[in-house]
Amino acid sequence: MKRKNKDNWIFRQRFAKTLQFVTKKRTAQPLPLETAESIVILARECYGDCIMLTPLIGTLKKEYPDLSIFIIAFSQIIFDFFSADTNVTAVYHAKRDMKRYCTKLLPQQFDLLFNPKEHPSIHFLIQTTLIRARRKIGHFSPYHEGLYDHLIEPTPGKHESEKNLSLLGALGSNVLQPCKPYLPKMPVSADITEFLRTIPAGSCLGINISAGHSGGRRTPQQWSELIRSFPDETFMIFSAPQDIEEKKALEQPHQNVLPSPSTRNLYEVGEIVKQLKILITPDTSLVHIASCSDTPLIALYRKRLADRTQFAPLSTLQKVIVSPTADVIAIECATVSTALRQMLNTLPQRNPGTDHEPEKRQDR
Prior knowledge:
The chain is 37% helix and 16% strand. It is an alpha/beta fold.
């Protein structure tokens, strides 16, 4: 695997160098946003990345309501995500529906193009070359030089959302209060609507068992130990579709776990997370979904500095626990329990006259 990653990195470097050699070097001065009518943004491939892009999109639309915002997506989930965003003018899939892409997107002339990646990406560099824009902006990399009119200087450890928002400063816009992350509104199924009626705000603790990278998962036994340590709390389990059987297996043995229906989109997940008292999750998109509703959060990170700096939680009340190894399994169960107990003690007490706990299941 390491050899494959190394070969892939070398290929991307060589591809970028070839583009730098064969294309005309771009050196135009930045175009002020006040004069721009359109911008095309290349969207990264993961949910968390795209949630961290929404502060820029929201701020652009708030400060420049007449600006047309176009998104280039490289996967169906990201295409669907931004297609639901009313701040976005249009979304194009760079790998599917090539007829629409070639006939509707490529003939257009945009004022601005923005690549949010700091490293050379073959797909992003191809789009940078193909799409016509008066000014092209990216983050500094030796492999980006000459391909963009302006490169944003790096700031080590800068949060992903702040890196995206740095486009505003590069274009001469001084925004004092940028938008917070958000989830575009999507359809909510009848099952989820009914389920939301049964969970008063702040009545449940959430556990996310899934992870999008190696070393991000804890064992069912570790989650079970956490659940058993708080018998007076009601828990709810979140999982990716491929982990649904593990989610059900974890729901069954515990009377203080509330079974929840499967969600069909990210917005449904966000509507449930919004109701939680606290969410406990490895470093996944759930960390950023929680930030959209400012849900209190305990986040478990691998021993990897970039993860906990560039993709740190943005919830006001949060606790980051870093594994001593590259695997969150190495985080002691007692450490997670202690963090949860401390956070519970910092939360305001619910008024028993206005809220109630979901009933514990009696079907054991």
